[in-house]
Amino acid sequence: MKSSHFFLAFALLALALSYASAYDPSPLQDFCVAINNPFNAVFVNGKFCKNPNLTIANDFSFSGLNVPRNTGNQVGSTVTLLNVEQIPGVNTLGISLARIDYAPNGGLNPPHFHPRATEILLVLEGTLYVGFITSNPNRLISKVLNPGDVFVFPIGLIHFQFNIAKTNGVAIASLNSQNPGVVTIANATFGTNPPINPDVLAKAFQLDKQVVKNLQAKFGGSNN
Predict the structure, then answer these.
(1) Which of 7, 148, 161, 165 shows a CA-CA span of 20 to 30 A to 75?
(2) Does the pLDDT at position 217 exceed 90?
């Protein structure tokens, strides 16, 4: 009986530890400003830490997020992500920020997901049709957002934003990881290097093989 209790407790502890390690670890110091120079530094969360006595205000700041970005690309949107690479002071703090600019009449932040972060989005300009897809069975949860509206996209779930206004759209997103990562579905499926065998994608998406090859050529993962 004692043995079974021990194994149950061990299993529960392992489960708790695996859940805790799925997110950025809590810091054990006030901050750990990331630097690339290992000299006289400590390695934490994939970065070396600057001597805290040498940190300055610029380690924790970024300027220019108010400047509109160019949306003249195929999807009509630009994401400006501020993570540990742009603000070294967020190292170990488990947070990052992004500005998203959308072109009028259909600017799209395409379906994607963040493997390491939940996202909360605040609309500043435009009218955004947003949504995310639950894990199987897949259900779409969507809403039209106006300036001042907020929406949450849970960690690891596919989501998107689409500007349906005749004017430019702008949103600010906060993510609970210093390096949330992003997997854009179309690019990841049809633009891998090396490319996925088109027979696999043709069967998975129930498409003609030539259609798959055309999509791979468009996204840079051509088998030709």
Answers:
(1) 148
(2) yes
Indicate the Cα dihedral angle 61, 65, 67, 73, nearest 10°.
Answer: 130
pTM of the model: 0.83
- Find out whether 92 and 27 touch, Cβ atoms under 8 Å: yes
Phi, psi values for residue 179, rounded to 5°: -150, 75
Tell me the CA distances in angstroms from 68 to 99, 185, 219, one per residue in order.
9, 26, 26
Name the superfamily (CATH) of residues 58-181.
Jelly Rolls (2.60.120.10)
- The pairs formed by 139-146 with CB atoms below 8 angstroms and a separation of 24 or more are 145/121
Q: What is the pLDDT of residues 32-70, one digit of tens each?
A: 888 877 665 665 656 788 888 889 999 999 999 999 999
Using alpha carbons only, how large is the chain's radius of gyration in Å? 21
**Which residue in 181, 178, 190 sits closest to 26, CA to CA?**
178
The answer to whether the CB of 47 falls within 8 A of the CB of 84 is: yes
What are the extents of the domains in the chain?
58-181, 187-220
